[in-house]
Write a structure and sequence with these properties.
It is a single chain. This protein is α+β, with helices and mostly antiparallel strands and about 775 residues long. The chain has four domains: about 160 residues, no CATH class; about 200 residues, no CATH class; about 170 residues, no CATH class; about 200 residues, no CATH class. Helix content is about 50%, strand content about 15%. It contains 24 helices and 25 strands. The strands form four sheets. Strands 1, 2, 4, 5, 6, 7, 8, 9, 10, 11, 12, 14 and 15 form a 13-stranded mixed β-sheet that branches. Strands 18-19-23-21-22-20 form a six-stranded mixed β-sheet, with helices on both faces. Helix 8 packs parallel to helix 11 and helix 14 packs antiparallel against helix 18. The longest helix has about 40 residues. It is globular. It starts with a helix and ends with a helix. About 0% of the residues have low confidence.
C-alpha cells in the first residue's frame, strides 16, 4: 500500500508541476529566511551561555558627568580594590580598557591597528577562554601579549607564535607616541558566543587608568541593596553621581551612546525583535502559500481518493497518503533550505553587521528548532487537508471553487497581503529615516581626517603638500577628529542666575574650519576676520543659545565666561553657527564651543582634508605619497568622517537593510501564492469563461470577473494593515530625537506597489484564458 501511495504521490506531482514547484520553492525560501533569523536570535540570547560564572557577573555603570541622565560603563582603577576590601560579597573584579594605537609592526611590516585590551589577571576566571598553547602566566609580564587564534593566523600563519614579537606604536592624543615591543606568551582558541571581542590581551596594571568593570558576586546577591550600600558609603565616582550594578544580560542589552566599546558584545534588541517579527511573518506567508498550493494540488486527487475509498481503502489509508505527500514536500524543502541558508549567510551577515558562522546551524542549541519546523509543517497541513478532503465527495470537488467553500483560501491570501503591506510600509518608513541620516551626514562626505603628534615644521610641510594635490578642495588644521573631540561636563549660566547642567563639545580649528565642515554662520563677526579683532574669539552653536534662552544676536561680543566657565576670562563670543550632528540621531544635539586652533607639540593635531569626490583613488594615492614624504617611518592612517558618522547611526541602517530583504521576500512569496492560486482557479473556471464569451462577455469583463476577488482581498488587507503598521512605526520612531513623520505617501506607495505587482502576477493567466477560443474552452471538460 505504501509503495502504491508513493507512486500516486509522484504521479500527482508530475501532473501538477507548477503547483509542486511553487509550493516547494515558497516553503524553501520561507524556511531558509526564517531559520537564518531565528538562529541569529538564538545565538544572541545564548551569549556566554556556557560560562559557569555567567550568573555571577555584575556590570558597573555610573552617572555620566558630561551628560546628565546618561550612564557610562566606567570605574577608576583604584575603586574595585576598595570595594573588594570593604564588601565581603565581592569575589573578584575585572577591568577592561583599550588604548589607541597608530600602527603595529610584525616582521618589519607596518600593519593596521588591532584591538588590544589591557585587563586584570583575573580575566580567565571571568571568561573561560581555552589556550591553544602557552600559559596565562603571560599576564605576570606587562610586556607579554596573549593573541587570539584569528589574529595569530593573520600575523604568523600556521607557525607557533610563542616568543614572536609585535611592535605597537601607542598614542593617546595627549602626549607623544610610545613604542612598546610585546612578546607572544599564549594564544587563545576561538570561542563562540563570547561577550568579549579582542585581538590581543595584555596585563599592565601600571598603565591601567580604569574602564568598564565587571564584578563577580554570589548568585543570590541582592544588587539593589549592594547599590544602596555603595551609595551610602560614598564610594568615589566621576562627578558626585552614583554607581549602578547590572546583571550580565542587562550589560549586553544596554546602549552605550557615549562610549565606543568595540570589544564588548552589544545585543541589538530592537533589531532582533523586528527581525524575529519579520521572520515569523515571512514564515506565515510561506506556510499559507504551501497550504494553499498543496491543498489545491491534493484536491485534484479527490476523484482518485474517492475511487480508492469505493475500492475498499480506509480513511486512515487516505490520511497516510496525504501525510506522506506533505512530509516528502517538507523534507525536500528542508534540505533545499539548508543549502540556501549557507548561500545566503554572507548576505545575511552583511545585512545585520555580524560574523555569524554556519556551524551554529548544526549545534545542539539550534538544530532541534529546524527539526521542529519539519514536524510542525508536516503534521498541521496534513491534518487540515486530510480532514477537509476526506469529507469531500466527487460532486463537492466540482463545486469547490464555484461556491463560498473557497472562503478560507481568500482568508489566507488576505493575511499574506496584510503581511506584505505591513513590511513594505515599515521598509519605506525606515528608508526615509535612513535618508534623513544621510542628508544630515552630507557635510561629512568626502571629508577625511589625519591625526598625529607632529612637529610644527612637519605639520606645515604636510599641509602645503596636501593643498597642492589635484582633487583636494580644502585643508584645515584643528585638534582631535570631529567624532572624537572633547565632550565635557559644563554648567551654563543664564543671566537670571539659573544654572543648567549639560554637555559641551569643545572644538578648535583655523580660519578654514567652517568651510571644511560646511557650517553656516547665523550671526556675528565673520569667522575669518574675527581673529584680527580678537585672537580669543570663539563661536557657539544654536543649541548653546537656545539653552540660555537668548536671541542669537544678543550673545555677540559677550565674554564666554559670563555664561560658561572654561577656565579663562578672555574668550569672547564672536558669533553663532548652526547646529551639526556628531552623534546618533537618537540623541539631542550637544551645545559646542569652537575656538581658534593653537599648535601645541604635546597634543594631537588633526588635518581635515576635503576632497572633490571626482577621482578619489588617485587623490588618496597622492595623499599617502605626501604623508610618506613627510613621515617616511610612520604608517599612514586616516578617518573617513562620513563612515564614522554612519557607524554612529548603524542601527537604523541595519534595520533598513533587514526590512528591505524581508519585505522583498514577503512580496515574492505572495506573488508565488497568487500565481499558483490564480493558475488553478482559472483552470477550474475555463468552461465557465467559454460560456460567458459565447454569451457576449468582453475580455475586460472577464478580466474583472477573475481578478475582482483578489483586489477585494487586497483592499481588506490594506484596511487591516494600515493601523497596525502605523502603530508599530510610530513606536519605533519615538527612539529618535530627530526623525521623519509617518507619511501617508508611504501607505499609498505600498498600496500602489502591491497592486501593480499583483496585477502583473495574475494578469498573464487571466488574459490568456480570457482571450482564448471559447470552443477550446468548452472542450476542456
Amino acid at each position: 500500500m505504501f509503495k502504491t501511495a508513493l507512486k500516486l504521490i509522484f504521479r500527482n506531482w508530475w501532473r501538477n508541476k507548477t503547483f509542486t514547484l511553487i509550493s516547494i520553492l515558497s516553503l524553501t525560501v520561507g524556511i531558509a529566511c526564517t531559520a537564518l533569523l531565528i538562529s541569529f536570535v538564538s545565538y544572541e540570547y545564548g551569549i556566554e551561555k556556557n560560562n559557569p560564572n555567567r550568573n555571577k557577573l555584575v556590570w558597573v555603570m555610573q552617572d555620566m558627568p558630561s551628560n546628565p541622565g546618561e550612564k557610562v560603563a566606567y570605574m577608576s582603577s583604584d575603586v574595585p580594590k576598595q570595594l573588594q576590601e570593604k564588601y565581603p560579597e565581592m569575589e573578584g573584579f575585572l577591568q577592561l580598557n583599550s588604548f589607541g594605537m597608530k600602527y603595529i609592526e610584525v616582521n618589519n611590516q607596518h600593519l593596521e591597528p588591532m584591538e588590544i585590551l589591557n585587563v586584570d589577571a583575573s580575566f580567565p576566571e571571568f571568561f573561560p577562554f581555552e589556550l591553544l598553547y602557552g600559559s596565562w602566566n603571560a599576564f605576570h609580564n606587562p610586556q607579554s601579549i596573549v593573541l587570539s587564534e584569528k589574529q595569530t593566523q593573520k600575523f604568523f600563519g600556521n607557525e607557533n607564535a610563542l616568543g614572536k614579537q609585535i611592535t605597537v606604536c601607542k598614542e593617546d592624543g595627549f602626549g607623544s607616541e610610545k613604542i612598546i615591543v610585546y612578546t607572544v606568551g599564549a594564544v587563545t582558541k576561538s570561542r563562540t558566543q563570547s561577550a568579549i571581542i579582542f585581538d590581543g590581551l595584555v596585563c599592565d596594571p601600571e598603565n591601567n587608568w580604569g574602564g568598564p568593570t565587571l564584578l563577580m558576586m554570589p548568585v543570590h546577591t541582592d544588587r539593589s541593596q549592594f547599590e544602596e550600600k555603595v551609595k551610602k558609603d560614598r564610594i568615589p565616582t566621576l562627578a558626585g553621581g552614583q554607581y549602578y550594578f547590572y546583571s550580565f544580560d542587562q550589560s549586553i542589552s544596554s546602549t552605550y551612546n557615549q562610549q565606543q566599546l568595540n570589544y564588548w558584545h552589544y545585543r541589538k534588541n530592537s533589531l532582533l525583535l523586528v527581525g524575529l517579527i519579520s521572520a515569523i511573518l515571512v514564515f506565515l506567508t510561506a506556510v499559507f502559500n504551501y497550504v494553499n498550493m498543496s491543498f489545491s494540488r491534493v484536491l485534484q486527487q479527490v476523484k482518485a481518493l474517492h475511487t480508492q475509498k469505493l475500492m475498499g481503502a480506509r480513511a486512515s489509508d487516505v490520511r497516510i497518503q496525504i501525510f506522506a505527500d506533505t512530509f516528502l514536500a517538507v523534507l525536500i524543502s528542508f534540505v533545499l533550505a539548508i543549502l540556501m541558508m549557507h548561500d545566503l549567510l554572507p548576505v545575511f551577515n552583511q545585512v545585520v553587521s555580524v560574523d555569524f558562522s554556519p556551524g551554529y546551524f548544526y549545534s545542539k542549541d539550534f538544530y532541534p528548532i529546524l527539526i521542529l519546523f519539519i514536524v510542525v509543517l508536516t503534521v498541521i497541513p496534513a491534518w487540515i487537508m486530510s480532514r477537509k478532503i476526506s469529507r469531500l465527495s466527487g460532486s463537492d470537488y466540482r463545486l469547490f471553487f464555484a461556491t463560498r467553500k473557497n472562503r478560507w483560501i481568500g482568508t489566507l491570501i488576505t493575511v499574506q497581503f496584510v503581511v506584505a503591506f505591513a513590511l513594505i510600509i515599515a521598509t519605506l518608513t525606515a528608508n526615509r529615516q535612513v535618508s534623513l541620516v544621510k542628508q544630515t551626514g552630507n557635510r561629512y562626505r568626502n571629508l577625511i581626517e589625519i591625526s598625529g603628534v607632529m612637529e610644527i615644521q612637519e605639520l606645515q610641510k604636510l599641509t602645503s603638500r596636501l593643498k597642492n594635490i589635484p582633487g583636494v578642495s580644502g585643508v584645515s588644521i584643528g585638534n582631535l577628529p570631529v567624532m572624537n573631540s572633547w565632550i565635557m561636563h559644563g554648567t551654563l549660566r543664564k543671566e537670571t542666575g539659573e544654572e543648567i547642567e549639560t554637555a559641551v563639545l569643545q572644538l578648535s580649528g583655523d580660519e578654514e574650519l567652517l568651510d571644511i565642515l560646511n557650517l553656516r554662520q547665523l550671526s556675528g563677526d565673520d569667522w575669518r576676520s574675527s581673529f584680527q579683532i580678537n585672537p580669543y574669539s570663539v563661536l557657539v552653536n544654536k543649541t548653546f543659545v537656545d539653552i540660555l534662552g537668548k536671541r542669537e544676536t544678543e550673545l555677540t561680543n559677550e565674554p564666554l565666561s559670563k555664561y560658561f566657565d572654561v577656565g579663562d576670562s578672555v574668550s569672547v563670543i564672536a558669533g553663532v553657527v548652526e547646529d551639526f550632528h556628531f552623534n546618533s540621531l537618537e540623541e539631542k544635539t550637544t551645545s559646542f564651543v569652537i575656538g581658534r586652533y593653537a599648535y601645541d607639540p604635546r597634543y594631537t593635531s588633526t588635518l581635515r582634508v576635503r576632497l572633490d569626490g571626482k577621482n578619489d583613488s588617485e587623490t588618496f594615492s597622492a595623499i599617502k605619497s605626501a604623508w610618506r614624504q613627510t613621515f617616511p617611518d610612520d604608517g599612514f592612517t586616516y578617518i573617513d568622517t562620513y563612515n564614522e558618522f554612519i557607524k554612529l547611526n548603524i542601527k537604523i541602517f541595519e534595520m533598513s537593510r533587514l526590512l528591505n530583504m524581508y519585505s522583498f521576500i514577503s512580496i515574492l512569496l505572495t506573488c508565488f501564492g497568487l500565481f499558483g492560486i490564480t493558475f488553478y482557479a482559472v483552470r477550474q473556471r475555463t468552461k465557465e469563461i467559454g460560456i460567458r464569451k459565447i454569451n457576449g462577455a468582453k475580455t475586460p469583463q472577464l478580466l474583472w470577473l477573475l481578478m475582482k476577488p483578489i483586489f477585494i482581498w487586497m483592499a481588506i488587507a490594506f484596511v487591516v494593515a494600515v493601523p497596525i503598521a502605523w502603530w508599530f512605526i510610530e513606536r519605533w520612531l519615538q527612539q529618535f530625537v530627530y526623525r521623519i513623520d509617518v507619511s501617508v505617501s508611504s501607505f499609498l506607495l505600498a498600496l500602489l506597489l502591491v497592486a501593480v505587482i499583483t496585477f502583473l502576477t495574475v494578469n498573464w493567466h487571466v488574459w490568456r484564458t480570457a482571450r482564448s477560443n471559447p470552443v477550446e474552452s468548452l472542450k476542456s471538460e
